[in-house]
Amino acid sequence: MNIDDWFDELATKLPATDVYIIKQSYAVANKAHARQKRKSGAPYITHCVAVAKTLANLNLEGEVIAAGLLHDVPEDTTVTLLELSQEFGPTIANLVDSVTKLKHAADELQIDQLTFLKRKEAQRAENLRKMILGMGDDVRAVLIKLADRLHNMRTLKYMPPEKQKRIAQETLEIFAPLANRLGIYRIKLELEDLAFKYLYTDKHDEIVAKINERNDEIDKYINKVAQQLTQFLNEENISHKLSWRAKHIYSIYKKMKRKEVDIDQVYDIRALRVIVPHIQDCYAVLGVVHTKWHPISGEFDDYIAVPKDNGYQSLHTAVRDNQGKLFEVQIRTSEMHNQAEYGIAAHWRYKDGTQADNKFDHRIAMMRQALKFKRDIHDITESVADAHEFMDAVKNDVIREKVYIFTPKGDVEELPIGATPIDFAYKIHTQVGHKCRGAKVNGHLVPLDYQLKNSDKVEILTTKRGGPSRDWLNENLGYVKTSRARKKIRLWFKKQNYIESVAQGRVILEKELKRLHITAVRLDEIATTCGYKKIDDFLAAIGYNDISIQHVIRKIEELTATSLSDEEIIEQIQAKSKHAMDSDSGIDVMGIGDLLTKMAQCCHPLPGDLIIGYVTKGRGVTIHRTDCVNILSLQDKERLIKVNWGAEKNTNYVTEVIVKVYDRKGLARDITNVVANENVNIRNIKINARDKYNRATIRLEIEISNLSALRKLMDKIEHLPNITEVVRKW
Ligand code: MN
């Protein structure tokens, strides 16, 4: 494309003053780089124009595009920053300066990698921090840097092979995560695919070949599905735009690795995308999709209710058709789509070429917070503690998977995020693990459930005799993160006294039965159900942690579900009912805080319908409409009981969950996130004050549909770090 054509195109979407300044910048850059060539042999200015075009495609304003054109001028030519400042003013000059500083931060990274090869990983977070600090006051410099990197990646084939690998590595580790952090998916995805191609060429080519092989077939299929969906949505009068796209190569690779499957099993090589005007339309579309096809459990994500950190919102689901073929559907509003495409760049977009987005200020504030950007930089210069916190935030947010820990001798051990000194001890030597009694991190004593952070220097304090503590195996307490340590601890207990383990197992089981208020079970029955002939063997297995208590409880649930007699069920329900004494009025369905009634799937009764209860064999009372055909045609009339709607008009049941915790930063938020993720409504949350041991109790009043949903929720909460106990209030 001719440069003047591009200027004409810009003139259709930018104010004339912006286009003017872009033309001026082009003239200056073109002159300054006149004698320089790219490795490809192309004039250097082609790189500057490519960078500027990427920025223009992100719909950024004139001064950013201008700075993109000028970004290599002070560094690589005789024109100075001062001259740029005089010609274009401080904003553009500062942007260019920030980009140059970012480049230096990246260069330092290379030196660090060579000098401290072993410490390379630990250094990455530090360098990322430097890069973010390096962007000065204007985050738009990072966008220019990303556009710069994108073009360098697109032209990477002209570089020598060893340089290709290094640049690709850096792109995958630093620039793609940065683009992700800023929510600019189009750049993130392209950077990942390009880096992947150079780093894992064989894998890349293999996936591409496989995709090409099946391309037509998949295209044809998804075309058909898209037509069907359009028809369904039209029938429901849901206005929408539908598109689909091939999944990116690197995403496929990651999914294959994550799920340990072959490419043939990575079904969502095609994803349908539905864009609708309003949020409520998103859920309407989801309803249609889930009715017409079969939803795959565990594949539904509601990023509208719980947006990703970078602001991304959408509904994601995967469904199966009648032939068993799978595809993915993403549903979002056009506003969410904008956010996904442009990320923070969306916040600088001009709506009609003249006026900035009216949510501009708010979004800038959000973005700044997301990047912990300007304030942190000031804090860092003022306080070392804050600097640490900031580094932690950057590390944890951007490089999630591993921490790198130093031994007292300066060796590096790799551990998963969330690992504790105990994990570290077992990593060093099994005996060190068994005898671990305390730990010093960076010279200070820490509790054994301390979560290790990148670059921590850890010294393990050991005892001469004795073994691990049984508490270490309690997942609720968070002492152990790695399966290696867990296995070693379990083995140790196995070797210990059988009788002791039996006793221990009994304690664990009894505690759990009490916690869940389960009384009507016999030990020998549970043992048999779990596959043990002798009760002691069964208890010992619990003591060894060979079978998890969760597993045992599930078995008990199955057992009790089928063992209750009809009379017992009715008795239990009546005992819970407010109006149990008034036998004429029957049982209240709502508001009895009981989970033994459920709505019939055949007639879906709603409050206000005339209803009747049917006592099922061992599974409580099912509520039907009195005019339900299944009830009218029923032979077995003695199983029918009188029921009322009761006072509560909510279809969910209200219950209270009590969570005991060792308080930590963000814990209450983590708990409410878990609850929201389970689509459970919180009516009330009460947090009592921490005591001197840092213990606190959180009471959640929730609306929940049934007992297994409640158990699932309790399990999820229990798995958060620092939770000691989760019980249902009885
Ligand atoms: Mn450049």
The CATH class designation of the largest domain is: Mainly Alpha
Bound molecules: manganese (II) ion
CATH fold name of the largest domain, please? Answer: Hypothetical protein af1432
Backbone shape: globular
SS elements, strand count: 20
Which percent range fits the helix content? 40-55%
Instruction: Please give the largest β-sheet.
Output: 6 strands, mixed
Task: For the record, give the distance between the C-alpha atoms at the N and C termini, rounded to a whole number.
Answer: 72 Å
Structure commentary:
The structure is a single chain. The protein has 730 residues and is an alpha+beta fold. It folds into 6 domains: 3-199, Hypothetical protein af1432; 206-345, Beta Polymerase, domain 2, CATH 3.30.460; 401-494, Beta-grasp domain (Ubiquitin-like (UB roll), Roll), CATH 3.10.20; 498-561, no CATH class; 566-645, no CATH class; 653-728, ACT domain (Alpha-Beta Plaits), CATH 3.30.70. The protein is 51% helix and 15% strand. Strands 1, 2, 3, 4, 5 and 6 form a 6-stranded mixed sheet that branches. A hairpin with a 7-residue loop joins strand 18 and strand 19. The radius of gyration is 31 Å and the shape is globular. The termini are far apart. The model is unreliable at 111-119, 349-400, 578-585 and 591-595 (pLDDT under 50). Bound molecules: manganese (II) ion. The site of manganese (II) ion has 4 residues, from loops.
